[in-house]
């Protein structure tokens, strides 16, 4: 992935919303539910608003502990995973080629969360949305985490 | 005498029950008023024992607690309920978009009413307004064609003779699935209100409708003043499940940024529909209990409107359980609204046929059996209610939603 690449959410196939810092996404065609928390939600937010991959890396490195190489690799891998899941797509320039898009916006610093080491960029994926929506969100879920984690489900992070 | 009509039947009609009102205040009010209401509600409440109407307010409560700086001991489940509401709404919007696309392809004009219009246009986040179905209004003359479109898209009418209902009621439910146990997915309306079943009753709503995008399809919904009128009239009518969220809906419309509400339009709409009493009671309640920004002048104009005896009786019948004699009174007055120009004898002669269609009965000669059956069922429900009160049992939890499985299948 080129450092100048920018992305957008793959709408209308994908709908998403940020709820109190957590990003939730649905692939409508396949019925897959995703959750991004912490650093993953932060980085997704910057990719979503059109920051280039390089801007996201630079902003993160400047405000986080840890080596630039590790941070850059983690963010690139995260963006690749989001694209592989079909949640984001690269923005095309006017010529139709994938690649950098000029922007008149200054890269903004990450302002959310503590400025410690970058947390894990985890994509929580739930393949069984058809069953999950039938789950009683009060009586059949893990009390501390709530829907979509089922009661007794210890396999999720 | 006036208090008899305006007192407000608690629970299923105009006035929410005290426990619902405490939750509404906790979910909607800012500052100390909201904090006090939350503490009072929480001290008497277990999340596991909430009824359906209370559950549907949890997303708003979760958001307001954040703004009030409070943490609920069950915060995980509260936030989870909000995620669930957002997800199920998105699935419903997606399916509704297919329906709207199908109607447009058939040249049928449409606009969305109630939950979908409110969730997308008025609530800050569509997940704050849980929904069980999407209400779609089509022109009266295209109602039967719209039913054909819905069937062609795989939806199933829950009524046996939905075409007949066009002559007597305002809407009929369709399910996204062929499962007999499934709940409705689309309420197809040809009139916006139960209380407005006559040709041309919604012309003003259609003329002022505003754009909204649902499921990727450009459509329309009611203008804010019309939406508030609709919320007040629909919300304060009795329903089997107490419709407490009309209070949240109305306050959300009233608080929406973007300019003052067109109160002249709302008052004119209420008067034209002979619903001044219902709207006045609803707005008065919002102002009294929630400090809603309802102008005194608008209330005064509604208060000074002439309210006929029929309207008072209708208000009484529509805000109490639609059972037994109350049900017959409400249907008689509805029939009267439709057949207003006809004389009393013609109206009476047409009432059996009206009931046959409204109750979805195949043959007119079966009507007496249905009346007897309904009376017997009413007695049975009364006995069950009494037993439930004596034993102290009460329903809890949310409704089953097997239709969501179909929605989620894309």
Order of helices and strands of chain A: EEEEHHHEEH
Question: Would you identify the regions of chain B where 5 or more consecutive residues have pLDDT less than 50?
Answer: 1-12, 394-410
Give a quick account of the main beta sheet of chain B: strands, pairing sense, barrel closure.
5 strands, mixed
Q: Count interface residues per chain for the largest interface.
A: A-B, 33 and 35 residues
Binned, the helix content of chain B reads 55-70%
Describe the structure.
The complex is a heterodimer of chains A (157) and B (410). Chain A has 157 residues and is an alpha+beta fold. Chain A has one domain (7-104, 114-126). In chain A, 27% of the residues lie in helices and 17% in strands. Chain A contains 4 helices and 6 strands, in the order ββββαααββα. In chain A, the strands form 2 sheets. A 4-stranded antiparallel β-sheet of chain A has the order 2-3-4-6. In chain A, β3 (22-27) and β4 (32-36) form a beta hairpin. In chain A, α2 (53-63) crosses α3. Chain A is globular. The two termini of chain A are 28 Å apart. Mean pLDDT of chain A is 79; it is low at 94-115. With 410 residues, chain B is an alpha+beta fold. Chain B has one domain. Helices cover 56% and strands 7% of the residues of chain B. Chain B has helices at residues 2-6, 18-28, 31-43, 52-55, 58-68, 75-105, 114-121, 143-152, 162-165, 203-208, 224-235, 245-255, 263-272, 276-290, 296-304, 309-318, 324-338, 344-358, 367-391, 403-408; strands spanning 111-113, 134-137, 156-157, 171-175, 186-189, 210-214, 217-221. In chain B, the strands form 2 sheets. In chain B, strands 1-2-5-4-3 form a 5-stranded mixed β-sheet. The termini of chain B are far apart. Mean pLDDT of chain B is 85; it is low at 1-12 and 394-410. Chains A and B meet through β2, β3 and α4 of A and α6 and α20 of B.
């Amino acid at each position: 992935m080129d450092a100048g690449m920018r992305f957008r959410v793959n709408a209308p196939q994908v709908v998403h919303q940020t709820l109190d810092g957590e990003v939730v996404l649905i692939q409508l065609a396949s019925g897959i539910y995703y959750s991004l928390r912490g650093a993953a939600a932060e980085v997704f937010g910057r990719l979503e608003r059109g920051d280039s991959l390089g801007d996201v890396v630079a902003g993160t490195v400047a405000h986080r502990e840890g080596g630039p190489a590790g941070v850059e690799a983690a963010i690139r891998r995260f963006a690749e995973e989001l694209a592989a899941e079909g949640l984001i797509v690269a923005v095309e320039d006017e010529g139709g080629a994938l690649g950098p898009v000029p922007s008149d916006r200054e890269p903004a610093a990450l302002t959310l969360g503590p400025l410690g080491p970058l947390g894990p960029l985890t994509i929580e994926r739930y393949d069984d949305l058809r069953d999950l929506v039938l789950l009683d969100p009060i009586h059949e879920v893990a009390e501390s985490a709530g829907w979509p984690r089922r009661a007794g489900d210890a396999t999720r992070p | 005498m006036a208090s008899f009509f305006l007192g407000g039947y608690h629970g299923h009609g105009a006035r929410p029950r005290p426990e619902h009102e405490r939750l509404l205040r906790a979910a909607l009010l800012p500052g100390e008023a909201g904090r006090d209401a939350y503490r009072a509600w929480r001290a008497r409440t277990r999340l596991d024992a909430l009824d359906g109407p209370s559950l549907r307010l949890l997303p708003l409560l979760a958001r307001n607690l954040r703004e009030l700086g409070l943490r609920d001991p069950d915060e995980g489940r509260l936030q989870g309920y909000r995620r669930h509401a957002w997800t199920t709404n998105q699935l419903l919007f997606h399916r509704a978009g297919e329906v709207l696309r199908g109607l447009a392809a058939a040249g049928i004009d449409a606009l969305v009413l109630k939950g979908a219009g409110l969730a997308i246009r008025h609530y800050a986040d569509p997940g704050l307004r849980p929904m069980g179905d999407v209400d779609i209004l089509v022109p009266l003359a295209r109602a039967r064609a719209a039913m054909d479109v819905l069937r062609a898209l795989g939806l199933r009418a829950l009524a046996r003779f939905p075409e007949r209902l066009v002559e007597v009621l305002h809407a009929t439910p369709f399910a996204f699935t062929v499962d007999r146990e499934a709940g409705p997915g689309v309420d197809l309306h040809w009139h916006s209100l139960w209380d407005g079943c006559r040709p041309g009753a919604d012309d003003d709503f259609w003329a002022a409708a505003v754009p909204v995008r649902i499921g990727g399809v450009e459509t329309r919904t009611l203008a804010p003043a019309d939406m508030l009128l609709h919320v007040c009239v629909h919300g304060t009518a009795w329903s089997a499940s107490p419709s407490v969220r009309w209070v949240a809906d109305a306050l959300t419309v009233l608080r929406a940024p973007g300019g003052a509400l067109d109160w002249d339009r709302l008052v004119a709409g209420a008067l034209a529909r002979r619903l001044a009493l219902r709207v006045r009671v609803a707005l008065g309640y919002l102002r009294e209990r929630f400090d809603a920004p309802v102008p005194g002048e608008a209330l005064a104009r509604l208060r000074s409107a002439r309210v006929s005896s029929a309207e008072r009786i209708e208000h009484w019948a529509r805000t109490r359980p639609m059972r037994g004699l109350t049900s017959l009174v409400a249907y008689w007055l509805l029939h009267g609204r439709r057949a207003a120009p006809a004389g009393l004898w013609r109206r009476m002669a047409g009432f059996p046929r009206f009931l046959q269609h409204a109750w979805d009965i195949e043959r007119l000669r079966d009507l007496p059996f249905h009346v007897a059956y309904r009376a017997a069922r009413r007695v049975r429900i009364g006995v069950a209610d009494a037993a439930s009160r004596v034993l102290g049992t009460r329903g809890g939890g949310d409704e089953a939603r097997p239709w969501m499985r179909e929605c989620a299948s894309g």
